[in-house]
Structures are given as structure tokens and as C-alpha cells.
Amino acid sequence: MTLDIALQFTSILLGFAFIVQSSEHVKAEFWLYMPRIVLSVLLMLGLHADIVCVGLLISSTLLLHRYNGPYNGGADRMGLLVLVCLTLAYLLPAAYAEIAFGYLALQLILSYFISGYVKIVNPEWRSGRALKDVFLYSGYPQSEQFRALEGKRELIFIASWAVILFELAFPFMLLEYGFLIAALVIAAFFHLSNAIFFGLNRFFWVWISAYPSIIWFYGRVIEGGALL
Amino acid sequence: MSFFKKTVFLLLPAVIPSWRFFDEIAPSPRLEYAVFDDIDEETYNWRELQLNDDKISIIDLIKRLFYNSARNHSLYIMSLSERIAGEDCAHAKKEVLRIVKLKLQQLYGSPEARFFRYRLVFKLRVGSKIERHVYFMSGAKMLRAECDYDA
Fold first, then answer.
1. For residue A136, what are the domain limits?
2. pLDDT tens column, A38-65
């Protein structure tokens, strides 16, 4: 995948993620969110992407000030990271653009690996109790029906280890293109399950918007351009 | 803090993220409110502000993948609650008060002499038990829209 194509895919996916987010607020805070929706549509259409990205960065900065931080924690932060890297990739000369987009790929890898590492060193995650507690008393389960899953001891234990091992193994998927694509499909389903169980729909759209960066990264760095 | 400094401060965690998702299961906040008529009331009927659905249909789950306003609003309240317990207290308290008041005005209207309090409760594991600790309770506030009287 060439850099240009990867940037286009990222633009489309990120624009869509921003529209999904903004649609929830546009009625209550029209002047803050309607320009963001318009800019996101332009980003998806690929019209003056560099200027549009700068506009979206201004919009994101205004939102950070409005909420004194991200509205939706990690998802909004990831959205901002993708946007910053995309903006730099559009604005900078080719060599620096590759560094900016490569940084996004690197952060995507770290987002899984570090999350896996902090879990495996925690005995509560290894025993399955951490995930049980997420369902039992955290504010995350989207319904009482899902909260009841805390009682499924074996399922919780297997799910805990599946998440830990997948996250830790993620960087090694870069060894082979087929593994990488399979890993991204599994990761997308992981985010989908988080959207279903915990209502974290913003994570799903934002994280997959970063996937083109890692597919490009594989071709550019791991295979030295063989996949172009 | 200047606008520029604050912008850098707010942007940095996004550009250089820590990625420590769920490294520990932290105490989980719940926002509760009580509405009452007598300002000297001393016992309150506390209710949770954001109640979960009992069950969600598959159609609704698919819809919520694209539009999940209520849920994301709840997550924002959780985030504000955690900020109240952390260092960002003033903005978070102001925002929580605005949200609680708006919600209660939707539920009860804006009668002349009705009051409310809200409180922040954290659920946490202590050994084999799940306990509830009240972290913060607001003063009595008037429900009427234009008045922010804090008794």
C-alpha cells in the first residue's frame, strides 16, 4: 500500500469516526460540532485534505478546552493522535511525512502491546478477577444483562488470557503480512466486542482508522517496499 | 495558565499516550442525586443518575455502534467523577452540577422551592467484598433554573 493510498483510507475512516462522534452533540452545541461535521465530510472526500486537517485540529483543540480534556478518554485521544499524524503527513515533505505516519503505526502497535504488558504483570488480570470486577462493579457494562457475565468464571478467565496474549503478540504479527491482516481483523472484533459489552463505540471507529498506517508501515519498513 | 500552555498540556497525552488501559480496576464512580422540598431535610432518598438498561436488543446494539449518545454521556460523567477525585476539581464539579441540574429539571421541572443534592459514590473491592464509599456530597441547591443558590 503506498503512502498516498494509506493516507486516503485513514482520511475516510477518521472522517467517518468524527462524524459518528459529532452527531451525538450537534443538536446541543451546534456551532462547536457542525463545522467539525462539515470538515469531516470534506476529509472523507479528500478535498484540500491538508487545510481540512488543520481545521479539524483547531476544532479538536476547542473541544479539549470545552471539556478541559477529552470528552471520551482514550478514544478521543487516539482520534487526536491519528489527526495530528495525518495532518503532519499531508503538510510535510515526503520523508518527514513517512516519519509522521510511521509514528502512528508505532503507537498503534504500542497501544496493544503496552495494554497487554500492564495486564500480564498484574496478578488480578492473570487470575481473571480484574475482568470479573469490570463486569461486577465497574460503570462499563452497557446493560445489566451483560453485568451478569461476571458469574461465568471459566469464560471470564479464558477471555482475560485471550486479551492478554493477543495484545502481547500483536507486534509479532508484523513478521508476516497474512498474520498482520488476521491480527487486524481480530483486533477489530475485539473493539467491536468492547462496543457491544461496554458501549465503547468510539474506540471501534477510531482504532480502525489507524489500521491503514500499519499496513503501509509493513510494506515500507518490514518488506522494504515489496508490498507497494 | 495561558491558552497556549493549556493547549500543549491538553494535547500532550494524546500525542505521547501511555496506553495503560485497565492496568488496574480502579474504584468505580456513581453519581447519585436526591430531590427534596425542605431545605433542612436531613435524610435523603438517593437515586443513581445514570441507570443501565436491563437488556438491549441486537437491533439497538447495532444502532449504538453508530449513535450512542446516552452511553457516551455516562462515560463522560464517569470521567468527570474521576477528575473530581483527582486534581481537576473545579471544572469537573461545575460541569457535574450543570449536568445534574439539567437532568433533574428534565425530570422534575423547575419548581420555586425545591432543592437537590448530589453525591459521588465510589464502588471498590475490599478483599472479597464490594463496598461503597461516599467521596463527596454537594450542598443543597435550588432546582429553579436561573438560581445557583448553594445552601
1. 3-222
2. 999 999 999 999 999 999 999 999 999 9
Interface subset of A 152-171, CB within 8 angstroms of B? none
Residues linked to residue B142 through DSSP beta bridges, in sequence order: B115
Tens-digit pLDDT profile for residues A137-180: 998 998 999 999 999 999 999 999 999 999 999 999 999 999 99
Kindly state the helix (H) or strand (E) to which residue A153 belongs, with its residue range.
Answer: helix A153-169
**A227 within some domain:** no
Task: Judge: B29–A139 Cβ closer than 8 Å, yes or no.
Answer: yes
* Percent of chain A scoring above 90 in pLDDT: 90
Q: Say if the Cβ atoms of B75 and A72 lie within 8 Å.
A: yes
Å between A19 CA and nearest CA of chain B: 9
Nearest by CB to residue B25, choosing from A20, A72, A133, is A133
**CB of B37 closer than 8 Å to CB of B140:** no
8 Å CB contact of B10 and A202: no
Structurally, chain B folds into a number of domains equal to 1
User: At B40, is the pLDDT very low, low, confident or very high (cuts 50, 70, 90)?
Assistant: confident
pLDDT band per the 50, 70, 90 thresholds, residue A26 = very high
| In contact, B19 and A114? CB cutoff 8 Å | yes
Cell of A37: 461535521
CB within 8 Å: A69 and B88? yes
Segments forming the whole domain that contains residue B138: 25-142
> Does residue B72 sit within a domain?
yes
In a domain, B8, yes or no: no
Contact criterion met (CB below 8 Å) for B10 and A69: yes
- Are A215 and B80 within 8 A, CB to CB? no
Q: Does residue B133 sit in helix, strand or coil?
A: strand
Residue B129 lies in a domain: yes
* Residue contacts between A and B (CB atoms, under 8 Å): 144
Question: Which amino acid, one-letter code, is at A37?
Answer: I
In chain A, the number of structural domains is: 1
Specify the pTM.
Answer: 0.92
Cell numbers describing residue A128: 481473571
- Which helix or strand (DSSP H or E) is residue B118 part of? strand B115-126
CB-closest option in A68, A133, A201 to B125: A133
